[in-house]
Design brief:
about 160 residues; Recoverin, domain 1; about 5% strand
């Protein structure tokens, strides 16, 4: 029996067994030919099917990384390294948003008033149409409480970050 050069952490890609299984199921779902290799030309569609819309620059980067030998295919390991990168980038974005949220919630109440959000949006982009601001606020504060929690703030920022 050969020993693996990977540690358990590397085999799990830093994910729980449940998350790892979800991504294995996704890979297997895409692997219609049961070849354990997926065509690089379908990489963008695979990412979109999983709910991630890569930028052109990200797609170019991923294509180079999953298929460095230019075979036209990528395997589960390459797939998971790409997924781990995407998840880490998402964690970084969430932490950045948390820092921004804390700036506007100096009393640590856990929410920001919609009026403060409107003022912030106007300051960031004075030319932003009021209709767009109102749509963002309606989206972020669906219960009309006048207060936006971090989760609502994150949803608003991620949704309108086109």
């Amino acid at each position: 029996m050969s020993s693996s050069v990977y540690t358990d952490e590397e085999k799990s890609y830093g994910l729980s067994k449940a998350k790892l299984m979800e991504f294995k199921e996704a890979f297997d779902y895409f692997d219609v030919e049961l070849s354990s290799h997926l065509p690089v030309e379908k990489l963008e569609q695979h990412l979109i099917d999983m709910g991630y819309n890569p930028t052109d620059m990200e797609l170019d980067k991923f294509e180079l990384e999953v298929d460095p030998d230019n075979t036209g295919y990528y395997n589960f390991d390459a797939f998971m390294k790409m997924v781990a990168y995407i998840l880490r980038a998402g964690d970084d974005i969430e932490e950045d948003l948390a820092q921004v949220f804390r700036l506007f919630d100096p009393d640590s109440s856990g929410s920001i008033s919609t009026k403060e959000i409107i003022d912030i949006l106007k300051e960031i982009d004075p030319k932003m149409p009021r209709k767009e601001i109102d749509e963002m606020i309606a989206d972020a504060d669906p219960d009309g409480s006048g207060e936006i929690t971090f989760d609502e703030f994150k949803h608003m920022m991620m949704k309108h970050d086109d």
